[in-house]
Amino acid sequence: MEDLKRLFRKGSFLLILLCLAVAAGSFFTGFKEDKGRKQPEESWEPAMEISGSAATGNTGAGDNGKEPQESLSLPYFLEEPDSLLGEAEEKELENSALSAALEVQEVYRYAAIEEDAPYTYTVRDFSREQRNRVVSMLGEAGYVSVTDGANMENHNSVRDFYSAYLKGQDSLVTIFDVNLDGLIGAYTFIHRKGNLQTFYVQIGWREGGVPEIISTAVSDIAEIKLTEKGYFIYAYTVQLYHSSLRQFWRAAPLSDRCRELTEKYLDGLSYVNYNVLVTDWDSNNVEDILIPCMFEDLYRMDTGEILRPENGEIPAEVYERIMTTYFPVTKERIREICGYCADTDSYPYEMIFSSPYPPFGEVVGDKENPDGTLTLFVDGVWPDYNSDCAFTNIITVQPFDDGTFRYLSNSIEKKELDIPNVYDMK
């Protein structure tokens, strides 16, 4: 979950010196080789600083009606801030994290631990079932715990912490985040004398299910927010390169039904790369939303695999099967719209370039219709802009007996934020 896992960790000073030495050597070598040759201009994005609810720096997102803000020039390597905790308190939190890990070591006892850097301490093929079991065991032991695709255990502790924060009271809460690779991150949020910080402890694993602290870090927090729907959103004072503006967990539970529908019908669809979710459409104007770049996401949803085109082309049989399955459109119209090449019986591959800070859809309700279709009520969640309901969608789908489905229509309505303009996000 954490984008900053963590550049400025205790014990990393020697590694940073080594990186600086290598970089310096590369610089002088390159300077000698390229002397007299004109170098292309390169853009450099500084780290950003979050102040209040605004982020200064190049966000790359749509303007949302706001004036662009000037980037701050900050050092590449940043010193760890002074901790709000004393050494004894930090040590107590480290011991608590190890104690929590011991509660779940049975899950890791026979796990295959990676031995090669940089994956040392991680678990090979750590399954969703294993992650959920770890979260459940931690919850039963009284810890706040969470992982992707599961409800947070003991989430009321987060609400209590936020309530104390709003009242100006000193408080703290620790959230154990079970990562996809089996590592466990213990994030302690501290509010003390009007200041916010996290104290982070990362737990890795040795063979036989032996937990070990592999890093700790102290970070200043610029802001936190617990939304009406229960999203706990926070921003670091200093945002490092390629990280999100804000980090988040869903603290309040989501029903199993809504989670299942979200994963089946929405995971993988983008609000910012094409118009499927941001345009009102149905069978009468579906052709308006069909563009080649959307195929890559549909292919991954259909096959569970990453698209690997050969020579920049996609076989027509594959392309047309997927497009006509997931949308109410004929093969003939697909050929007219999406660049079919008769000589090679294929379609051109159009790569999607990721847009920063995208929102995502979350099903919050559904209705089964008499004709067998399903209507989904969707909230667009945009944590990077502090919103758990930026806009709402009503999406109608037709489920098929083989597990596939077809999108039949979409409508979208602005709520807390403007609806993304796909072309502005590019």
Number of helices: 10
- How many domains in all? 3
Uncertain spans: 1-48, 50-76
Distance between the termini: 25 Å
Provide the spatial order of strands within the biggest beta sheet.
Answer: 3-4-5-6-7-8-10
Report the helical percentage.
25-40%
Strand composition percent: 25-35%
What Rg do the Cα atoms give? 24 Å
Write down the overall geometry.
Answer: globular
Largest sheet: 7 strands, mixed
Class inferred from helices and paired strands? alpha+beta
Overall average residue pLDDT = 85
What order do the SSEs take from the amino end to the carboxyl end, as H and E? HEEHHHEHEEEEEEEHHEHHEEEEEH
Strands, total number:
16
How would you describe the overall organization of this protein?
The chain has 426 residues and is α+β, with helices and mostly antiparallel strands. The protein folds into three domains: 13-45, no CATH class; 87-249, no CATH class; 254-426, no CATH class. It is 25% helix and 27% strand. It has a seven-stranded mixed β-sheet with strand order 3-4-5-6-7-8-10. Strands 13-14-15-16 form a four-stranded antiparallel β-sheet. The longest helix has 21 residues, at 13-33. It starts with 12 loop residues before the first helix and ends with a helix.
Defining traits:
426 residues, alpha+beta, seven-stranded mixed sheet, 10 helices, globular
Would you summarize the structure shown here?
With 426 residues, the chain is an alpha+beta fold. It has helices at 13-33, 87-103, 105-108, 128-140, 156-166, 256-265, 295-303, 316-326, 331-337, 422-425; strands at 48-51, 54-56, 144-146, 171-178, 184-192, 195-206, 210-226, 231-236, 238-239, 247-250, 313-315, 346-348, 360-368, 374-382, 387-399, 405-414.
